[in-house]
Write a structure and sequence with these properties.
Layout (H helix, E strand, L loop, with lengths): L2 H14 L1 H39 L3 E6 L6 E2 L2 E2 L8 H11 L4 E12 L2 E2 L2 E2 L4 E6 L3 H4 L4 E4 L4 H6 L3 E4 L1 H7 L9 E4 L2 E9 L14 E5 H6 L8 E6 L6 H16 L9 E5 H44 L1 H9 L4 H38 L8 H27 L3 H6 L2
Parallel strand pairs: 7-12, 9-11
Antiparallel strand pairs: 1-13, 1-14, 2-3, 4-7, 4-13, 5-6, 8-11, 9-12, 10-11
Length: 411
C-alpha cells in the first residue's frame, strides 16, 4: 500500500463518515478563522492608516506647544509652557516659506452644536481655524464648493467648509453650498464640503469638522487663549533632517528659548507617528496570535479525541488490514493522512471565513480596501498541517500497535 493508496483510503474513510468529518473540520475552521481573522483585521487597519500617512507625505512634521501638565513629580511642579501665539506662528511661516509649505491652524472648539434653521447637530463637532495651506497640508479634498479666497482669509469673513456628517444632518438631500449655519454665536455661510475620509479609529474623522478662516477664528470670543499648531510639508529636494534642524533653530529664536534651555515646543515627525503605529500593531498581532493559538489548541485536542474514537470504532478494520499484510508504517501513515486531510479541509474553510471576517472588521473600524493576507493564509495552512500531524500521530501510533488477532475479535 503506497502513499497514493493511503491517501485514497483516507478520503474513502472521510467520505464514509461524512458527518463526523464535517464536525471535526468545523472545529479546525473555527480555530483558523479566529487566527486569520484577527491578524487580517489588524493588517487591514494598519494598511489603511499607512495609506493615510503615505498620502499626507512622509516628509512632514508638526509643531505645537509642549505639554507637561500641571502635575507634581518628585516634589517638583512641572513647568507650564506658554502657548504658540498667532504672531509666532506667522513669523515661522514667513521664515520657512522657501524651505517648506507651512500651514497654521488653531483648535477653536471640540464640543460645538451646529444649527441650520430648526435643525441642529449633536454637540460633538469640532471647529478649526486654518489658513490657505491648511486643506492642502492636511490632504483634505473638497467634494463640492471652493476653498477660502485671499480676501476671506485676510478680512476674517464668516464663511465655513463643513464635513459630510454635518452636511447630511443639516441639509439632507440637498447641497449645503451657499446655505447658512449658526455656531459659537455667529452666522457662517457654507462655501464647501469636505470629501469624507471615513470615521478613523472610532472617531468622526473630518466628517464632524468645520473649518473657518484663521483670522475669523481669532475674532471669536473664547474663555481660554488660542494656541496655534504649525504643519510643515517639504515639497522640494531638501532632506527632512535638514529642514527639521532649520525649523528647530527658527522656533527657538522666535520663542526666545535661551541657550541650554529645553525647547518650549514639540516637533512630531510624520514617520515617527507611523513608527509608533507599527509598534502598537506589533503588540496587537502578538496578542491576536496568542488568542488564535489558544483556540487552535482546543481544536487540536478535539481532533485528537475524535481520531481516538475513530481508531476504536475501526479496530476490526485495522485487524483485517494487518491480516492482509499492511505494515505498522502503512497503518500509521493512513491515520496521519486522514487527520491532515481533515485539518486542511477545515483550514481552507477557516482561512476563507477569516479573511472575510478580518476585512469586515477593518472596513468597519477603518476605511481600508479589501486586503488579502497572503502571509497569514500561508501560516494558517502550515499550522493546519502541523495540527494534523500532532493530533493524528498518537491515534495513528495506537492504531498501528493493535494486535491483529485481538482486533479481529473486536465487536
Amino acid at each position: 500500500m503506497n502513499l497514493l493508496e493511503n491517501t485514497k483510503e483516507g478520503f474513502r474513510s472521510i467520505k464514509g463518515n461524512l458527518l463526523r468529518t464535517i464536525l471535526t473540520a468545523l472545529i479546525i475552521s473555527i480555530g483558523i478563522m479566529s487566527l486569520v481573522g484577527i491578524l487580517t483585521a489588524i493588517e487591514g487597519i494598519k494598511y489603511s492608516v499607512a495609506n493615510t500617512f503615505s498620502s499626507l507625505g512622509a516628509n512632514s512634521f508638526d509643531i505645537e506647544k509642549k505639554w507637561e501638565g500641571r502635575n507634581t513629580q518628585g516634589g517638583r511642579v512641572n513647568k507650564v509652557y506658554a502657548p504658540i501665539t498667532e504672531f509666532q506662528a506667522k513669523q515661522y511661516k514667513n521664515l520657512m516659506q522657501d524651505k517648506a509649505r507651512v500651514s497654521v491652524s488653531t483648535y477653536v472648539s471640540g464640543a460645538t452644536t451646529i444649527k441650520a434653521g430648526n435643525i441642529k447637530t449633536n454637540p460633538n463637532m469640532s471647529v478649526i481655524g486654518g489658513d490657505e495651506n491648511y486643506l492642502l497640508n492636511e490632504n483634505y479634498d473638497l467634494e463640492l464648493g471652493r476653498p477660502f479666497s485671499t480676501i476671506e482669509l485676510e478680512n476674517g469673513a464668516p464663511v465655513a467648509i463643513i464635513g459630510k456628517e454635518i452636511a447630511d444632518k443639516l441639509f439632507p438631500n440637498r447641497s449645503p453650498e451657499g446655505k447658512f449655519i449658526y455656531m459659537l454665536g455667529r452666522r457662517f455661510k457654507v462655501i464647501g464640503k469636505i470629501k469624507s475620509e471615513g470615521g478613523g479609529l472610532g472617531g468622526g474623522g473630518n466628517n464632524r469638522m468645520v473649518i473657518i478662516p484663521l483670522e475669523t477664528a481669532t475674532q471669536i470670543p473664547s474663555q481660554n487663549s488660542l494656541t496655534f499648531q504649525i504643519k510643515s510639508v517639504i515639497v522640494n529636494d531638501n532632506s527632512l533632517d535638514y529642514v527639521l534642524a532649520e525649523a528647530t533653530g527658527i522656533m527657538r529664536k522666535i520663542r526666545q528659548d535661551r541657550l541650554g534651555q529645553d525647547d518650549s515646543f514639540e516637533i512630531t515627525r510624520s514617520d515617527s507617528v507611523e513608527q509608533e503605529l507599527n509598534n502598537i500593531t506589533g503588540y496587537l498581532k502578538t496578542g491576536g496570535f496568542l488568542v488564535g493559538f489558544i483556540t487552535l489548541l482546543g481544536a487540536s485536542i478535539g481532533l485528537m479525541n475524535i481520531m481516538m474514537v475513530s481508531v476504536t470504532e475501526r479496530t476490526r478494520e485495522i485487524g483485517i488490514r494487518k491480516a492482509l499484510g499492511a505494515t505498522i508504517q502503512q497503518i500509521r501513515r493512513q491515520f496521519i493522512i486522514e487527520a491532515i486531510v481533515i485539518c486542511v479541509l477545515g483550514g481552507v474553510a477557516g482561512i476563507f471565513l477569516g479573511v472575510l471576517m478580518g476585512n469586515g472588521i477593518s472596513i468597519l473600524i477603518g476605511q481600508g480596501d479589501f486586503f488579502v493576507p497572503w502571509l497569514w493564509m500561508t501560516v494558517g495552512m502550515i499550522i493546519c498541517i502541523t495540527v494534523g500531524l500532532i493530533s493524528g500521530y498518537y491515534p495513528a501510533y495506537k492504531a498501528s500497535k493493535l494486535d491483529p488477532i485481538e482486533s479481529l475479535r473486536y465487536e
